[in-house]
Design brief:
By secondary structure, the protein is an alpha/beta fold. The protein contains seven helices and five strands; from the N terminus they run αββαβααβαααβ.
Length: 195
């Protein structure tokens, strides 16, 4: 039995030492624990420019969206291209928000003004409405300027004119293969046979 006394005393001494350390390390009773409030989030600072009423740098609350920045900048100008913007996108601190303008609208030129014969009429001071293409003297390019007349049909008109002589009336153009009543109706007010 004497054999067990040594290890048993060592074990008992270890327990006593561990208990004393545990008791000494515990916080004293009655000492209040201080809780710190969470830090206040910093504002989101963005540079707003382009087609807005008041471009500049704006400080917005955290979690702000593109829409909030545009409202702070006084809103969009009429020429702003709002379709390119994602108004619901969140803003990042230090970012730049640029509002583009819409590209200029290019209107098409009416066919009467774009045709070579109309350009010729404009260049000499006549209005396009009064400038008629003389089907007896017109070049291939002038004939092609007429609606419904392409390169091959213009060549057939010239070939008909060379084989049969000048047209006596504008209705005679229907004798050319490929020009029927529908095409003639489109041409009626644009052609002449008078010199």
């Amino acid at each position: 039995m004497k054999r067990f006394w040594g290890p048993l005393l060592g074990l008992l001494a270890g327990f006593l030492l561990a208990g004393a350390l545990f008791w000494a390390a515990r916080p004293p009773r009655g000492t209040p624990i201080t809780l710190l409030p969470p830090p206040t989030p910093l504002p989101v600072v963005v540079d707003v420019g382009g087609a807005v009423a008041h471009p500049g740098v704006y400080a917005l609350p955290p979690g702000s969206r593109v829409q909030d920045a545009l409202e702070s900048a006084g809103g969009l100008l009429p020429e702003a291209d709002a379709q390119t913007l994602n108004l619901a996108a969140p803003l990042e601190d230090g970012s730049r928000l640029w509002v583009p303008t819409r590209p200029p609208v290019v209107t098409s030129i009416p066919a009467e003004i774009a045709t070579p014969s109309a350009q010729r009429a404009i260049s000499i001071g006549a209005s396009p409405e009064t400038s008629l293409v003389n089907i007896n003297t017109a070049s291939q390019a002038e004939l092609e300027s007429l609606p419904g007349i392409g390169p091959s049909l213009a060549q057939r008109i010239i070939a008909y004119r060379q084989e049969n002589g000048p047209f006596a009336a504008i209705e005679d153009i229907q004798k050319v293969s490929g020009i029927g009543p529908a095409t003639f109706e489109r041409l009626r007010d644009l052609i002449t046979v008078a010199p």
